[in-house]
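This is your field. Pick holes in the following sequence-structure pair:
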Amino acid sequence: VFGKFRKGKSDLSGDSLITVLPDKPGYPVYTAKEWFSDAWDGMDHGQAYDPARPFFDQLTEVWAKVPRPHQVGRNNTDSDWCDDAWESKNSYLSRSLLECEDLMYSYRNVRIKNTSDASYNYDCERCYDITYCFNCFNTKYSFNCQNTVNGIFLIDCRNVQDSFMCWNLRNKRYCILNEQYTKEEYQAKIAAINFGSRKAIAELQKQFDNLVRDHVVHRENLNFKTFDSVGNYMSNCNRCINTFYWEESQDCFNCFRGLGNKSDIDLTGCLGAELCCNTANSIDGLYQIRTSSWLSNCRYSEYLDQCIDCEYCFGCVGLKKKKYCILNKQYSEEEYGKLRGEIVAKMKGSGIYGDFLPDSMRPSGYNVTNAQVYFPLTKEEAIAKGLPWEDVADTHLDGISPDELPDDIKDVQDTVTTQALICPQTHYRFNIAPRELAFYRMMQIPLPRLHSDARNLNRFQKLAIIDAYPYQCTYCDKSIQAYYPPEWGYQKIACEECYQREIS
């Protein structure tokens, strides 16, 4: 969920919480600690199945009574302003992070430290504005890099150190615009550039964008050690079709963002699933799960939401360690099998068996989910499709334009942390936190003009393309399918063989 972080109170204890869930969600919200405790039981909200009424209506009734945790994640320290955070420390306004520390304003990162404005990165430290980078240190304004140190404006570089405005480099140091310099020459040229100036960075970004368009050799896809597969951003996968952001998996079809999965269809955000279909945001030993979401270690079940350690359950919400339940009501094994068969037969007769959980069970508006990033809709279009929409309150509050702040980070005073700023793109109000200002000074980075949500979404556009387009390889004229929209204007798009030859 990309909803705005807000303060609220637990519907169980009244304790304060910070969440991205809506202000008026239509279901109870507990703190995550309360949700995982024994202070409540999902079975208390069970109801008997009524064959005279649509099954999804009854499931939605149960769903609306069962609480949701205020945040997704566990074992975090000083990271209250984060969501989908796991084993992370001292992080702020970030989403989807694992084993991260001192991370700010970022989305989907693993083992990242002392970094801000990062999307889809692994094992990086002291970086800024990086996307799809691995094992990088002190790297800024870069995309699709591995093992870089002290890099600025790099794309598709590997094992590169102390380089600026470079592309497709391998095993180089002291390079500018792909030209080799001595250490002294390089340092002198870098010292002449004011990287702390917002205007200077904007001009450099324009120059870099032109280089990306005209000079970079772009692979037809960014898969790594992946075979007999179709899709993008896959690593160590075999026989995966129409699949994206997928790792260490095999025999999957129509899948999106996952790790360690096997023989699955139509999954999103799953880890360790086998023989599952039409399921989202679920982890840890899933087996033969269908049409479900937010599960952990469940098996042989369908139409579940927020269940843990359950098996042989159908149409249940918020259960833990249960078996043979339907609509959160307990049955014997024989009763369960019979009633499940009756419900499935009726659903098949209505043509809805196999459909995903109904839109009435969405925890937030369509416009604040990943779906809006990949399949954007207007409010009118979403409502016409029966999708919920989350209206943002009037954000035109008192504040100043970021353009009124000093251009150069060296001229910024500590008092900037007390000023309210208005984002020109979203019109959201935001501020510069003290820890954020210290980071910018350390990294020689100018103050941002945009709200962090806008920066995240703008950065993520590079990764949001899941449609393949027909091209001919620039070098051999072979017909290929590549994940670059024609309007990007890339001049060099290569098949795998030609790409490897050109960058060697």
About this structure: Residues 402-460 form one domain. The chain is about 20% helix and 30% strand.
